[in-house]
Design brief:
Helix content: 40-55%
Largest sheet: 8 strands, parallel
Bound molecules: 2-phosphoglycolic acid
Number of helices: 11
Order of helices and strands: EHEHEHEHHEHHEHHEHEH
Oligomer: single chain
Strand order of the largest sheet: 3-2-1-8-7-6-5-4
Number of domains: 1
Shape: globular
CATH superfamily: Aldolase class I
CATH architecture: Alpha-Beta Barrel
Radius of gyration: 17 Å
Strand content: 5-15%
Structural class: alpha/beta
Number of strands: 8
């Protein structure tokens, strides 16, 4: 059985006090559920957020990490550093990292290998741009992103991976892929993984949808058979909307 996951990606929002307030309110309002709840605050909030939530079913995860274990890389953070403050999972390949910070499939392959080497779990983001979809290239783009960064890992290492399909045109735009569009792509992703690694691995990997998920559209998305949860940006910044999305699954 694959896991249901709701992960909040805070991006560059919330300082220490705001993060604290959020987790206090989230803990007060959390009901028992089988869904795994993850939140990715900024680097500066990781340790404190981890301490605040450690007795509750909330996993604090990182938004990024460097592909080397250590070295002269000013401003960067390693897997080992993340692990030393309790972090066991990181988001890799978010489209904002690809777009604004020039992360390539090749570099992401190194990050994937580094994560696995460090036994660090990761949410691997893929997604096409609007021009790709308009040119009917979206399936090729997604297949290449999977192939170029993930498909050299060994079968046993799929246990570290959650995939997030985030069409770039739906991120932070208020525009969501329709449940049918999302399901079509999730099914394609699962099939592409199955073709290389077999059905068992493909059936067990959780594939999250991301891109303007909100309480109003979450339920319909989660009703699709290949959508196992969501990576949520804007709507994860408020406890009320984040909880509603958790309840929708
Ligand atoms: P959004 O962001 O929910 O604000 O569209 C999603 C993401 O970037 O992961």
């Amino acid at each position: 059985m694959r896991k249901k996951i709701i992960a909040g990606n805070w991006k560059m929002f919330k300082d220490l006090a705001e993060a604290n307030d959020f987790f206090k309110e989230l803990i007060e309002n959390l009901h028992e559920s089988k869904t795994e709840i993850m939140v990715a605050p900024s680097f500066t909030n990781l340790w404190h957020s981890f301490q605040t939530t450690r007795d509750y079913p909330i996993e604090i995860i990182a938004q990024n990490m460097h592909e080397e274990n250590y070295g002269a890389f000013t401003g960067e953070i390693s897997a080992e550093m993340l692990k030393s403050v309790g972090i066991q999972r990181v988001i890799l390949g978010h489209s904002e990292r690809r777009l604004f910070f020039g992360e390539t499939d090749e570099q992401l392959k190194k990050k994937v290998n580094c994560a696995i080497h460090n036994e660090m779990h990761f949410i691997f983001c893929i997604g096409e741009e609007l021009k790709d979809r308009n040119a009917n290239h979206h399936f090729t783009v997604i297949k290449n992103q999977l192939k170029n960064s993930l498909f050299e890992i060994s079968e046993k290492d799929w246990k570290y991976i959650v995939v997030a399909y985030e069409p770039v045109w739906a991120i932070g735009t208020g525009e969501t892929a329709s449940p049918e569009q999302a399901q079509e792509m999730h099914q394609f992703i699962r099939k592409t993984i199955a073709n290389v690694y077999g059905n068992e691995i493909a059936e067990n990997v959780s594939i999250l949808y991301g891109g303007s998920v909100k309480p109003e559209n979450a339920k319909q998305l989660f009703q699709q058979s290949d959508i196992d949860g969501a990576l949520v940006g804007g709507a994860s910044l408020k406890v009320s909307s984040f909880i509603k999305i958790i309840q929708a699954i």
